[in-house]
Design brief:
The complex is a heterodimer of chains A (146) and B (201). Chain A has 146 residues and is of the alpha/beta class. Chain A is built from 3 helices and 8 strands. In chain A, strands 1, 2, 3, 4, 5 and 6 form a 6-stranded mixed β-sheet that branches. A two-stranded parallel sheet of chain A has the order 7-8. Chain B has 201 residues and is of the alpha/beta class. Chain B has a domain at 67-188: Rossmann fold (3-Layer(aba) Sandwich), CATH 3.40.50.12280. Chain B contains 7 helices and 4 strands; from the N terminus they run H-H-H-E-H-E-H-E-H-E-H. Chain B is elongated and about 100 Å long. Classes of the chains: A alpha/beta (146), B alpha/beta (201).
């Protein structure tokens, strides 16, 4: 089984490499600024000692004040995992950078999040609805739907 | 080695033997052949079956339904259970589940139908040759079930297809499905050649 990496240490390290990128660190998660997500994710994937080469899932949570996108990263080499989060405060036109260029596994899940939450992923090769049909009004998994 | 030769007849002797054989056949022909049904009772001898072409064809249709292999959700497992050895739907002449809609005449919609799936189901239904019947199996196919208020589920497949028999349950037991099929039989036997879908009266 994978072991969760020490997020406080990793958060400090990320803050040193990318100043202003880490918003907060918890026991098991790191919240990063959406503008620097792609740099941080690339660093987590390609740095020796971290090597997060496997993306388990991408999902999103609606907290009404903001929407949070959650990535679970796993390093198959070091057998450790990390929960990476980013926040999106704009409800009208939410945009977050896509990580498809780093982890191909995000392709369909980002499309699903776009379908059900309305969050656009900048840099996704094919950003359109996945589960619902073209012409559907609204984003059903948002808290204010219905 | 001694060779056993057949006895040699003169032509006259052969003609005589042949004449005797023919005479014996001839004697059998002139005597009356006994009736093979003589052992039957008097009542059965006067028996007569009269039916209409409609009834005969409806009976044949009813006894050889070819259902379409078509499962959408958990109801499909009850349908598989019905087809397998324990409940054995072969008793009703539904031996083979067909993979192709072009060879099927019964569509058992077993499970939740989403709006995204609806065009595919309609296309499969349109590909089936006439006459065809549809069974809505389970609460979801009947009315949308627990997902009726949902944004993505069709609230009852009668919105997109004509349905013959509704089988409620979540999911219905194989016995329930078999009961629904017997109800469909009762409907099919009332059909005619030009109108196989006459409704139950």
């Amino acid at each position: 089984m994978t072991v969760a990496i020490n997020c406080e240490e990793t958060g400090k390290k990320l803050q040193e490499v990318f100043p202003g990128s880490v918003i907060s660190t918890g026991k098991a998660d790191i919240v990063v600024d959406a503008n620097k997500l792609l740099e941080v994710a690339g660093y987590l994937k390609n740095t020796a000692g971290l090597d997060f080469d496997y993306l388990t899932f991408v999902t999103a949570v609606d907290f009404l004040d903001y929407m949070e996108i959650v990535y679970r990263l796993v390093s198959l080499k070091h057998n450790q995992s990390l929960i990476l989060k980013t926040r999106c405060y704009d409800r009208e036109n939410p945009v977050v950078p896509s990580v498809v260029s780093l982890w191909r596994a995000a392709y369909y899940q980002e499309r699903e999040i776009f379908d059900l939450f309305g969050i656009k992923f900048d840099g996704h090769p094919d950003m359109r609805r996945l589960l619902l049909w073209e012409g559907f009004v609204g984003h059903p998994l948002r808290r204010d739907y219905l | 080695m001694e060779i056993i030769r057949p006895p040699v007849f003169t032509p006259q002797e052969a003609d005589l033997a042949e004449g005797q054989l023919i005479n014996s056949f001839y004697a059998q022909c002139t005597s009356q052949i006994p009736d093979p049904d003589r052992w039957l009772e008097e009542k059965l001898q006067r028996n007569l079956l009269l039916t209409t072409v409609d009834t005969a064809i409806a009976w044949a249709r009813q006894r050889s339904i070819f259902p379409l292999m078509f499962g959408l959700a958990c109801c499909a497992f009850e349908m598989i259970g019905m087809a397998a050895s324990r409940f054995d739907v072969s008793r009703f002449g539904m031996d083979i589940f067909r993979w192709s809609p072009r060879q099927a005449d019964l569509m058992i919609v077993a499970g939740t139908v989403t709006w995204k799936m609806a065009p595919a189901i309609r296309m499969v239904y349109d590909q089936m040759p006439e006459p065809k019947w549809v069974i809505a199996m389970g609460a979801c196919a009947v009315s949308g079930g627990t997902f009726r208020e949902s944004y993505s589920v069709v609230p009852g497949i009668n919105h997109i297809l004509p349905v013959d028999v509704y089988i409620p349950g979540c999911p219905p037991r194989p016995e329930g499905l078999i009961y629904g099929i017997t109800q469909l039989h009762a409907k099919m036997i009332k059909g005619t050649i030009d109108n196989p879908n006459l409704s139950l009266k």
